[in-house]
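Attaching the record inline, Q. Sequence:
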Amino acid sequence: MSGFDHRINLSQVRSGDRIELTASEDERRAVAERLGLESLDRLEAHVALEKDGEKVSAKGRLQAALEQSCVITGDTVAARIDEAFDILFVPAPDVSAPDEEVELRAEDCDVVFHDGSVVDLGGAIADTLALAIDPYPRSAGADAALKEAGVLSEAEAGPFAALAKLKRD
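Structure, as predicted:
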């Protein structure tokens, strides 16, 4: 469960439908917990739907305001997300041959399967948020904390730094 479940019955989807989704406090709390965020103060999506048979295209914009923990110091790092998305909902494929190898193409990456009766637009938007957030947020004090702990920067630890050190010696 995504925590932001907004299911739409396929029979009710019409091309040109526009949907405005705003997560409630409980939904934001559930998504924040799922994604390991300190808080999620805003989660909204503006969506335009197009239907072609059993395929539904959802194009729009996701906006969020959140707080994460710095991966170095644990300090709070605020972030704003403003991300365009283009998601295609298609019927789930027949998986009767589980050993068959499947190769994904670039255009397959924003495809979400549905069961033939409903699409979970909210779940897809929560997943889009998960992909949009910084996986390694750093606070303003992160570099100083690393230096204090004796951790070398990439420039200090890279191969050219080793060559420069040899040249100095």
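The chain has a mean pLDDT of 85. The chain has two domains: 7-138, 142-169.

More tomorrow.
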